[in-house]
Amino acid sequence: MGTPPFPPPATPQKVLDATAPAPPSGAAEPARPTVPEQTGSKGPVRDRYFDLLRALALLRVVLYHLTGWAWLPLIFPSMGVMFALAGNLMARSLKRPPAQVIKSRIRRLLPPLWLLGAVGVTGMVLQGWGPDAEGHPGWWWLHLTYWILPLSDPPYAEGLPGVQGFIGEDWAVDLAGPLWYVRAYLWYVLLSPFLLRALRALPVATIAAPIALSAAFELGYITLPGERIPSALTDFSTFGACWILGMAHQQGILQRLPRYVVPSVAPAIAAVGLWYALNHNFTTDHDLDSMPLAQALWSCGTVMLLLHAGPSWSEWPRRLRRWDRPITLLNSRAVTIYLWHNTCILIAATQWDRLWEIDVMWRHFSWLLESSWPVLAVTWVLIGICVIAFGWAEDLAAKRKPQLWPDGSQNKRPQPRSKVHLDRAHRG
């Protein structure tokens, strides 16, 4: 299992989605919607707290897959957060007919994947990857259809050489690193109508079921042959509780609990996950992504706290308004950033390593060449290029007018001079 996207220099891993007044102690808190349903004729209002969480998750994913710092998933479990936010949105959408919602979610997901496949598979084929890659041409063509509908992991070439000093060797492995997330997301979407019904009937059992399944896999009570089915079930059990928690939050289930329950239970769940990790060789090379049960417990506990303690912002608080445009951009292009960031890391690392060939650099600035921060800066420049080059697929998938740089500034019309003058006059 890998995280949404990549360790140093770019080995894919896994990871890569206003508080009501407090009731009297011990009383149940009335449910409140996570996002206002309507504001006049403008439609649903975005919850900016969720936008902030999603932006932080993407930033952490990129940093983690560049540096491989094992403590980063402990500070902020990005994948659990992203799945929880997606589950929240899915539950809100399921107020419409399930078939319609599933079709809409799949439509939003697939075009960015197809664009990645068009570029990536073409490059693999040009470097010699073909029907004999899996030992039988029929299997290669059959598995290639997973690039169209990723019910299982799409295939990719291994051991490819680099491209003219532009991108490092084995680049297809890094390009395919995020695809586990796409496959897991698709299955969560397909199962969401059933999960929502189960959640309403048996909330505690439904949230606990994926963790119990993860424990059964981890402890050897369940073993399955092959690779594709066990991989899919492992991912489902690892982050399933987070997806269901997002649905539970949207349904008001968490909010109806006495306010002391989540702050009491969530830290205990996370602590068990941390204990398990520390007692199973937790290191940079063997972190939470290598321990599904520890990841499941830690992510579940942390997500519970983030959902419980988080406000609901229809507008940014004053201190965060300056970050509106970058956070809006990250949310508008979340799928593009996630799909391409691993490749951007590899290209950035490849180009930065070429500076070792310059004598003055390795003689006097080796400390700079060994630093991850310049590579991170170059990575984000490349991600910005990908946003411009490939991000339009997300707009087409959502049936929106394509935009090159959707940071929200296009939707903010300047006020007429007369209106500005009147506002200033009223403020004295």
Low-confidence stretches: 1-42, 417-428
Number of helical elements: 18
**Main beta sheet:** none
Number of domains: 1
Instruction: Tell me the span between the first and last alpha carbons.
Output: 61 Å
Secondary-structure element order, as H and E?
HHHHHHHHHHHHHHHHHH
Explained architecture:
This protein has helices spanning 48-67, 72-75, 78-93, 98-126, 137-144, 171-176, 179-201, 203-218, 228-250, 261-278, 292-309, 324-332, 334-353, 359-364, 366-369, 373-390, 392-397, 417-426. It is mainly alpha-helical and 428 residues long. It has one domain (1-428). Helix 7 (179-201) packs across helix 8 and helix 9 runs parallel beside helix 11. Residues 1-42 and 417-428 have low confidence and may be disordered.
Task: Give the SSE layout.
Layout: H1 48-67, H2 72-75, H3 78-93, H4 98-126, H5 137-144, H6 171-176, H7 179-201, H8 203-218, H9 228-250, H10 261-278, H11 292-309, H12 324-332, H13 334-353, H14 359-364, H15 366-369, H16 373-390, H17 392-397, H18 417-426
Compact description:
This protein has 18 helices and no strands.
Keywords:
mainly alpha, 428 residues, disordered N terminus
